[in-house]
Write a structure and sequence with these properties.
Length: 247
């Protein structure tokens, strides 16, 4: 398989075999992932690896009890980590000035890049991975469970393990590349363009429209899956947690 075929056909794995991944293998894949590009080679991130069954059970409610948390061989919580770097600065007579929004954004970017690099390495090594979008919803609870110190903020959680043979194969449908690529300047799509971009996804996901008694798939996203009230509630929680960590 060529590298382009791999990326076109990769897919999320949510169901795993019960087989463990050795600490040596996890360390090897993570160490390779840490060669990802980052801001100023400061590596403002840490990863908490959870393999213990009891600890996974403890984390599960923070991720709305998604089965991939307790079913995975390992749950990896990727965090912005200014605690380590600022400690290094202070013991070297340097006064850090990273308690600001710009530094938080840099940390978000770098942590996201290293998480994705790990996923690619793990998948090319025969494992399956799943991003959990719930980390930013319950960051204070996750931080408490994982004993994260101040200036360490959870950003992304990834589950990893050997895929079950019954797990569906094949790439997930995406909107066409032409909808996303803009040469030289942003090209505003017409209503007709937008309808054509989302047509296949709407057709494949029509059952969700019926199940939720909605008129369109867009309403499933705005009214059911990601309602404004929920987003505002969890935004407030995360914003307050970020402020507590002096960003």
């Amino acid at each position: 398989m060529s590298h382009l075929e791999y990326f076109k056909n990769r897919h999320t794995i949510r169901k795993y075999q019960s087989q463990e991944i050795s600490k040596e293998k996890l360390d090897e894949m993570l160490a390779a992932a840490f060669h990802a590009p980052n801001t100023g080679n400061m590596q403002w991130y840490s990863v908490v690896v959870t393999c213990d069954e009891n600890k996974k059970q403890e984390l599960a409610p923070a991720h709305f009890n998604q089965p991939s948390v307790t079913g995975a061989a390992a749950v990896l919580t990727f965090c912005i980590d200014l605690n380590r770097f600022e400690h290094w600065c202070k013991i070297n007579n340097a006064q850090p000035g990273f308690n600001n929004f710009q530094s938080f954004i840099a940390g978000i970017i770098d942590t996201s890049i290293v998480a994705q690099q790990f996923c690619t390495i793990a998948e090319l090594s025969g494992f399956g991975t799943c991003y959990l979008g719930t980390t930013a919803y319950n960051a204070p609870l996750i931080a408490e469970i994982l004993k994260l110190p101040k200036r360490v903020v959870p950003v992304i959680t990834v589950t990893v393990g050997l895929p079950l043979e019954s797990e569906p194969q094949g790439a997930t449908t995406r909107i066409p590349a032409q909808a996303i690529i803009h040469y030289e300047q942003y090209q505003h799509p017409t209503d007709e363009d937008i309808r054509s971009y989302y047509k296949q996804i709407e057709e494949e996901s029509h059952k969700f429209v019926v199940e939720n008694a909605k008129e369109t798939l867009a309403q499933v996203f705005t009214d059911v899956r990601y309602p404004k009230e929920s987003a505002e509630h969890f935004s407030k929680i995360y914003q307050e947690f970020i402020k507590e960590n002096e960003f």
